[in-house]
Design goal:
With 93 residues, this protein is of the alpha+beta class. The protein folds into 2 domains: 30 residues; 63 residues, no CATH class. Helices cover 43% and strands 13% of the residues. The chain is built from 3 helices and 3 strands. Strands 1-2-3 form a 3-stranded antiparallel beta sheet, with no helix packed on it. The longest helix has 27 residues. It starts with a helix and ends with a helix.
C-alpha cells in the first residue's frame, strides 16, 4: 500500500472520529427537559422536517420568552401551573 493511501485512511478515520466525539459531547451537554438553556423558561416544540428527519433523537424547540431556537434532548416536560396568575384571578371575580 502506498504512503498516499495510508495517509488518506488515517486522515479519514481521524476526521470521522472527531465528528463522532463532538456529537457525543454536544448530546451530553444538551438539557434533557423542555427548559430553555438561555432563560430557563419552558419551550415550545416546533416541527422541523430537516432536523427531525436527520436527527430524530433530538427535539427542535423554540423559546417564546427570549426567542432561542435549537435542539434539546427528549425528556420530562414541565407541568402546567396549578394556580392562576394574580392578574387573571382578580379579573375572574
Amino acid at each position: 500500500m502506498s504512503d498516499g493511501w495510508i495517509f488518506l485512511i488515517i486522515f479519514t478515520v481521524i476526521f470521522v472520529a472527531r465528528i463522532v466525539f463532538a456529537t457525543m459531547f454536544f448530546h451530553a451537554v444538551l438539557p434533557d427537559s423542555d427548559r430553555c438553556p438561555e432563560c430557563d423558561t419552558p419551550t415550545l416544540r416546533v416541527h422541523s422536517r430537516g432536523w427531525n428527519l436527520l436527527m430524530p433523537w433530538f427535539r427542535t424547540s423554540w423559546c417564546y420568552a427570549c426567542g432561542w431556537r435549537g435542539l434539546l434532548r427528549h425528556g420530562h416536560l414541565t407541568e402546567a401551573p396549578t394556580t392562576l396568575p394574580s392578574k387573571v384571578r382578580s379579573h375572574r371575580r
